[in-house]
Design goal:
Helix content is about 35%, strand content about 20%. The protein is α/β, with parallel strands linked by helices. It has a single domain, classed as Purple Acid Phosphatase, chain A, domain 2, CATH 3.60.21.10. Bound molecules: zinc ion. Zinc ion (ZN) binds near residues 8, 10, 36, 152 and 154.
């Protein structure tokens, strides 16, 4: 089974379209999404429509939570909060319903999908302690080694664990996953990368040869920026796309 894993689309229609066009050439059997379909950029409804029509299996992200009104964006920084409140105004009833009905985590064959951390949509996996807690929970949820795919940080990340020892690997093009290890893997962000590379990110996981391939692709960034400005969203949101920050 070949699975394309995407995350943090953030209403960037140009990036999502470019990523899906590339995925179509890669003979995948399914596409899964790690949450934050909306927020920051200017096409929330259009991105939700695509996720629905493409039957992409999706979990709930923290921006999806706040934009749909499930919770207030009290902990968001001013920029993210402004975008959430703008998105709330734009969402159609259908879009809101779609977001509200998303699960926070999903168990699929040999992998587990969640947005920030297991059982905490808002918590980042950035530091060792975060990784320790998530590997422990992954082991509790699933006996045999398994892969946890997560998003939220917008940075391609590979962490592995064996007998309590955690290692970081470079998230480069191709990665062979060992049977005896657990993994926490972030495919990077489709719609707002934050690792200094403005290109859209995603990965493909092939469970037959236990191989993960990371991809970065160009998209029409200018068009996305224009839409942000024209929508009256904070101009800083357009600028940061070009920096990949
Ligand atoms: Zn996000």
């Amino acid at each position: 089974m070949r699975t394309a894993v995407i995350a943090d689309i953030h209403a960037n229609l140009e990036a999502l379209t470019a990523v899906l066009n590339r995925i179509r050439t890669l003979q995948v059997d399914e596409i899964v999404c790690l949450g934050d379909v909306v927020g920051y950029n200017a096409n929330p409804n259009e991105c939700i429509d695509i996720v629905r029509s493409e039957k992409i299996l999706c979990v709930l992200g923290n921006h999806d939570v706040a934009a749909s009104g499930l919770e207030e964006p009290d902990t968001f920084n001013p920029l993210a909060r402004a975008a959430v409140l703008w998105t709330r105004e734009q969402l159609t009833g259908e879009s809101r319903k779609f977001l509200i009905n998303l699960q926070r985590e999903l168990s699929v064959r040999d992998f587990y999908l969640f947005h920030g951390s297991i059982h905490d949509t808002d918590r980042y996996i950035l530091y060792r302690d975060d990784a320790v807690d998530n590997f422990r929970e992954l082991a509790r949820l699933r006996q045999s080694p398994v892969i946890g795919f997560f998003g939220h940080s917008h940075v391609m990340t590979v962490l592995s664990e064996q007998n309590g020892i955690i290692a970081t690997s470079l998230a480069h093009e191709d990665l062979f996953l060992q049977q005896s290890k657990r993994y926490l893997i972030n495919p990077g962000s489709v719609g707002q990368p934050r690792d200094g590379d403005p290109r859209a990110a995603f990965l493909v996981y092939d469970d037959r040869d236990r191989n993960v391939t990371f991809y970065r692709i160009e998209y029409d960034l200018r068009r996305c920026q224009e839409k942000i400005i024209n929508a009256g969203l904070p101009p800083r949101l357009a600028e940061r796309l070009a920096w990949g920050r």
